[in-house]
Amino acid sequence: MRIAQIAPLMEAVPPKFYGGTERIVSYLTEELVAQGHEVTLFASGDSITCAELIPMAPRALRLDKVIRDPLAPQLLMLEKVAQQAHRFDVVHCHLDYLPFSLYRRLGLPFLTTLHGRLDLDELKPLFDEFTDVPVVSISDSQRKPMQQAGWMATVHHGLPANLLTPPRAPSCDYLAFLGRISPEKGPDAAIRIAREAGMKLKIAAKVDRADRVWFEDVVKPMLAEPHVEWIGEIGESEKAAFLGNAAALLFPICWPEPFGLVQIEAMACGCPTIAFNRGSVSEVVRDGVSGFVVEDEIGAVAALAKLPSLDRGAVRRDFDARFTAARMATAYLDLYAQIAAEHGTRGRTASDVESVTRTRTDRPLAVVRSS
To answer: Domain named Glycosyltransferase subfamily 4-like N-terminal: which ranges (predicted)?
Structure first.
């Protein structure tokens, strides 16, 4: 199939450091290419891919100190994709609701994976309007607040099978917290849980500008506690050792996490997860197999005492069965086939697109014709 992947521009694909959505776009894109599909990736210019890369910004917007309005390049990207729509059987967007209005009006063969939270009041009227737009959830839990959306399927995230692997002899002498420092992620709870359990905690995390004050006021003073080691933001190459040698990953979230990529990263490393029962956690962590799902800090401390009952090999096998990039790509290919069949886009030409856009708009739209 001829597939366009439309990535957010805030991070490179894959991200240099922290970044969930762009990382999943990378894993999906590379797996689709490996399976023989013709994939075009619209992303920042510092992205690395085996697909055809069409750069929509010189570098990741988060790392570009000149950019003051990050929305403008992303809207321009949506227009540029529309102009090249005749090249693709399907357009897969990862920009949440940004493409809805334009692409519906043009009748483009597209679907959107929603990567963020949907339990926000301001989103309800928007999804009430766009009930016909095909969307994909990354967990069943994510879609609960927005039942009226045009859901095609739930597709759980996946990782390349050999990206992260368990160490042969894990030390298991510390607990791990990996991700982003923010109130909803619960790093303060992780520190308290480790303290109560009498275990060392290593924190590998980034601090966004929006959470800087909370970090300085709440978390930073706790880093002085003797059982806490602050590592900071780490890259992909460091995750296997960090997670693989941890006794467990602590995931004490206090918000409806749509997926929580770090949970399956830990599973790939054979590391069990101790997670609060919020959002998608119970869909990802199999209680008593790949970790323990608990309700609060007291439950987390009690679960840590049960870690010897878990087989770290079984944790990895659970990952292999449920969360590989190959499994994710297969699920998306089924959806792409549905979209292409509905729109009749297999083998579509530029003139076909022009005909559709002329009938769906009040005035002709520019179409980039193939040579």
So the answer is: 18-119
pTM: 0.90
Do the beta carbons of residue 30 and residue 49 sit within 8 Å? yes
Residues 146 and 196 in one domain: no
Whose structure tokens read 């409806």? 256
Look at residue 170 and tell me if it is in a domain: no
Whether residues 6 and 138 share a domain: the answer is: yes
Query: In this structure, which amino acid lies at residue 84?
Result: Q
Q: Of 137, 133, 138, give the one whose Cα is nearest residue 150.
A: 133
CATH number of the domain enclosing 153: 3.40.50.2000
Q: Domain for residue 370, yes or no?
A: no
Residue 277 and residue 260: Cα distance in Å, rounded? Answer: 12
The answer to whether residues 269 and 249 touch, using CB atoms and an 8 Å cutoff, is no
Backbone phi and psi for residue 78, each to the nearest 5 degrees, phi listed first: -60, -40
DSSP result, 331-346: HHHHHHHHHHHHHT-T
Domain range for residue 149? 2-160+325-360
**Which residues does residue 356 pair with via DSSP β-bridges, in sequence order?**
none
For residues 240 and 159, is the Cβ–Cβ distance under 8 A?
no
Spatial CB neighbours of 162, under 8 Å, sequence gap ≥ 6: none
Q: Are 41 and 49 a contacting pair, CB within 8 Å? A: yes
How far is 250 from 304, CA to CA, in rounded Å?
A: 10
